[in-house]
Automatic annotation (TrEMBL):
The lineage of its organism: Bacteria, Pseudomonadati, Pseudomonadota, Gammaproteobacteria, Oceanospirillales. GO terms for molecular function: ATP binding; peptidase activity. One of its GO terms (biological process) is proteolysis. GO terms for cellular component: membrane. InterPro entries: Peptidase_C39. Residues 66-196 form the Peptidase C39 domain. Pfam families: Peptidase_C39. This is Peptidase C39. CDD domains: Peptidase_C39G.
Length: 242
């Protein structure tokens, strides 16, 4: 663990960006998926096999959990880099990188900012872009983004995976994967989304294919990969598409 991280922990700093209850980020026990056959759910097909995992395992699937109460931004970015770009990074790697482009004393008082995250991803050769988004256009966002929520006074970074109808799919570094009612999301969101853009984006990323409740309809549900046109609309350039 880096020296600055140790100092922050030892000083009891929580930071305005991630002051969450520590009990919410305790490590869950390791659980394993089971392969189960479903019968008589699709006409003409005798058995449909699906890998089924526990609710606890599902909660933190494809998500980097924050290990400190000030590192939600680092964990959210690590989630995007690992599951949308294939980088083998951990939360601690991101924290070290963020401290290298930040004012440690300011971080102690305020936590990390989107500007810190932008500077860090640009050092990696990627681009960070922040956008003001109107609520009625949220559904047009097709790539995973990082958003800042105000949860009863606590500023907290999460990954916005996608929106559907009146629901928002989030990867929360503290609470896990969750579906938030659109009304609640809009009440806590500041109207800004932060996108990481560059080469190597996985058009079939698990972050843009959130798990739904298992039903006969969703057993064979598939997601089409994002098109060039969709990525260009989100700020990618032609050179980054190949």
């Amino acid at each position: 663990m880096s020296l600055w991280i140790k100092r922050l922990i030892n000083s009891g700093v929580t930071g305005l960006l991630c002051s969450l209850v520590s009990l919410l980020i305790l490590v869950s026990p390791v659980l394993h998926a089971a392969n189960i056959g479903f019968t008589n759910v699709i006409p003409g097909i005798t058995v449909v096999n699906k890998s089924v995992i526990s609710m606890r395992e599902q909660r933190y699937l494809h998500l980097i959990r924050q290990q400190t109460d000030f590192s939600c931004g680092a964990a959210a970015l690590a989630t995007v880099l690992r599951y949308a770009y294939g980088y083998k990074v951990a939360e601690e790697d991101i924290l070290d990188g963020l401290f290298a482009v930040s004012d440690p004393e300011l971080v102690q008082r305020q936590g990390f900012s989107l500007l810190n995250i932008k500077h860090y991803v640009e050092r990696m050769g990627l681009r960070g872009r922040g956008y003001n988004v109107e609520p009625d256009t949220l559904k047009e966002i097709k790539i995973p983004t990082i958003v800042l929520l105000d949860l009863k006074g606590y500023k907290h970074f999460v990954v916005l995976k996608k929106t559907e109808a009146d629901q928002v799919y989030l990867a929360d570094p503290a609470l896990g994967n969750k579906i938030m009612p659109m009304e609640d999301f809009l009440a806590s969101w500041n109207g800004i989304v932060f996108a990481v853009i560059g080469r190597g984006f996985d058009r079939n990323s698990v972050l843009i294919r959130p798990q739904r409740q298992l039903t006969a309809r969703t057993l064979n549900n598939t997601f089409a990969p994002l098109t060039n046109a969709q990525l260009l609309e989100h700020g990618f350039n032609h050179a980054e598409l190949f």
